[in-house]
Amino acid sequence: MAPENTLAAFRLGADRGYRMFECDAKLSADGVPFLLHDSTLERTSNGHGIAGDQAWAGLSRLDAGAWHSRRYAGEPLPTLEGLIRFCLANRFALNIEIKPTPGVERRTGEVVAQLAARLWAGAAAPLPLLTSFAPESLRGARDAQPELPRGLLLDTLRDGWLDTARALACAAIVCNYALWDAVNVAQVHAAGMRALSYTVNDEWVAERLIALGTDGIITDRVDRFSAAD
């Protein structure tokens, strides 16, 4: 419907009544937090190479919309600050996935948390949820701004997953939706955390997760679910 991780996509979701959003954040070579899912630029922009190895001045000139459709040609890569200000202006909630370039996991967590804390200071909007597959990024976020809630992302239930989340004082576990069952949902709730799921684009999956008692889903299909559901 719109190119991922662009302000155009978040505006589209807002127009459809959504009031919480998820994004992927990493650092440019000169330390600017910006939105991009992949480590490399080719899939979702006209750039080339590893994004985190490039300075923001060059990244800011890339086209992050034409790959999707002609309608979005010229849509730029957004800074994380730009998205945060959009959310704060509209009192939207935000889940920031810290998606670091390999080698700067802790630093990315620190910078993202510091930026979020500075911009949310005194704001009426709910605090953001900072999530990551990288425990070291969550450690950096925790040590930099311990008051911001954190969530551990999992694509497998590796040994010690719940202990890792406890050690990081996480508020949530965010799993591939297929991993949830009644037992691990109960474990997460007993630990005082929320059970969240990605990426849920089918109604039958959402119904199963509701029946299991999970607490929320991330979807790409804002056309398929009502924001009030």
Q: Would you mind describing this structure in some detail?
A:
The structure is a single chain. The protein is 33% helix and 17% strand. The protein has helices spanning 7-15, 56-59, 80-90, 105-120, 135-144, 161-167, 182-190, 203-212, and strands at 20-27, 33-35, 93-98, 129-132, 150-154, 172-176, 194-198, 216-217. Helix 8 (203-212) links the parallel strand 7 and strand 8 (216-217). The mean pLDDT is 96.
The percentage helix is 25-40%
Question: How would you write the strand order of the largest sheet?
Answer: 2-1-3-4-5-6-7-8
Uncertain ranges: none
Q: What is the assigned CATH homologous superfamily of the largest domain?
A: Phosphatidylinositol (PI) phosphodiesterase
Q: Domains counted in the coordinates: how many?
A: 2
Please count the helical segments.
8
- Report the sheet with the most strands, covering strand number, pairing sense and barrel closure: 8 strands, mixed
Computed CA radius of gyration, to the nearest angstrom: 17 Å
Number of strands: 8
Q: Can you tell me the CATH topology of the largest domain?
A: TIM Barrel
Q: Which structural class is indicated by helix and strand composition?
A: alpha/beta
Question: What is the architecture of the largest domain at the second tier of CATH?
Answer: Alpha-Beta Barrel
The average pLDDT value, as a whole number, equals: 96
